[in-house]
Write a structure and sequence with these properties.
Elements: H1 2-21, H2 28-41, H3 43-50, H4 53-58, H5 60-65, E1 67-69, H6 70-90, H7 94-113, E2 115-122, E3 127-131
Parallel strand pairs: 1-2
Antiparallel strand pairs: 2-3
Helix pairs in contact: 1-2, 2-3, 6-7
Length: 133
C-alpha cells in the first residue's frame, strides 16, 4: 500500500509543480494530496517535502490555520471554473455536461466549507500575516 501512496504522491507533486507555472491548473490541492500521501508512505520524504519552499508557500498556511485566504481561494476557483465552463460549452454529450456540472457544484461546495482567513498587510515591515476571522 505504501508504494501506491508514494506513486500518487509523486504524480500529484509533478502536477502541482506544473500548476505553479500554468495558472489554469490549481497547485494547492495537488500539493495537499502529495502531503497526505507522503504521510502514509514515507516519513523521510514527507519531512523533506515539508522543508521545501513550495510546501511553505502553498500548503503550510492551510495545514496550520485550517483555512485559506480569499486570494488563494480565488486563484484556484477562477481558472478551474473557467476551464469547466469551456468544457461544458465545447462538449456535445449531455452525460458529460452533467458530470461537469456536478464537478463544478462540488468544487464550489468544497471551497465554501474551507474557512476564509484574513490577510493582514504590514506595509512598514513588508510582511503579510494570515489570521483567522
Amino acid at each position: 500500500m505504501k508504494i501506491i501512496y508514494l506513486t500518487i504522491a509523486l504524480i500529484s507533486f509533478a502536477v502541482g509543480l506544473i500548476g505553479v507555472v500554468l495558472p489554469l491548473l490549481p497547485t494547492t490541492p495537488f500539493l495537499l494530496l502529495t502531503s497526505y500521501c507522503l504521510l502514509r508512505s514515507s516519513d523521510r520524504l514527507n519531512k523533506k517535502f515539508q522543508r521545501t519552499k513550495i510546501y511553505k508557500k502553498y500548503v503550510m498556511t492551510f495545514m496550520e490555520k485550517k483555512g485559506m485566504t480569499l486570494k488563494s481561494k480565488l486563484l484556484i476557483q477562477i481558472p478551474v471554473g473557467i476551464m469547466l465552463c469551456v468544457m461544458f460549452i465545447l462538449i456535445d454529450s449531455n452525460v458529460m455536461r452533467g458530470v461537469i456540472a456536478i464537478l463544478f457544484a462540488g468544487k464550489v461546495l468544497a471551497f465554501s466549507k474551507i474557512e476564509t482567513l484574513k490577510e493582514l498587510n504590514n506595509h512598514d515591515e513588508g510582511k503579510v500575516t494570515v489570521t483567522k476571522s
